[in-house]
Amino acid sequence: xxxxxxxxxxxxxxxxxxxxxxxxxxxxxxxxxxxxxxxxxxxxxxxxxxxxxxxxxxxxxxxxxxxxxxxxxxxxxxxxxxxxxxxxxxxxxxxxxxxxxxxxxxxxxxxxxxxxxxxxxxxxxxxxxxxxxxxxxxxxxxxxxxxxxxxxxxxxxxxxxx
Length: 162
Fold this sequence. Notes:
The chain is mainly α. The protein has helices at residues 9-27, 29-40, 49-75, 86-116, 119-150.
């Protein structure tokens, strides 16, 4: 696998676009949650642009994350700073791996629930939502820790192609 010193412009753009889409997915959560509950009560649910946007946004996240993974495999990703401790490297690797799993699992479970009408998938989607919030918070905290405590300019890799 290649060993680049920084992320490509495509990797950086995909990171920030997916981050924005994830924020939008949380903003657009209420209309689809209300519609799901109404369907569970046997009520008819009318088309809603906000529901459509949430479904489309989830599918777009899935497509972009697959693209990110293809780029990660073909182009590689920069190594953690050499001076970083082994436990911190392990936490970073685990956090990134779990974020990728969540970024795939969320849209798959959401689409399975919404399109397939499968209640269990909706339950999985709800659990993954909480985990997503937790791991996004951990990811942001780690980036800020590197920027302001370790001061190793790690965050710059996600701003400028390298």
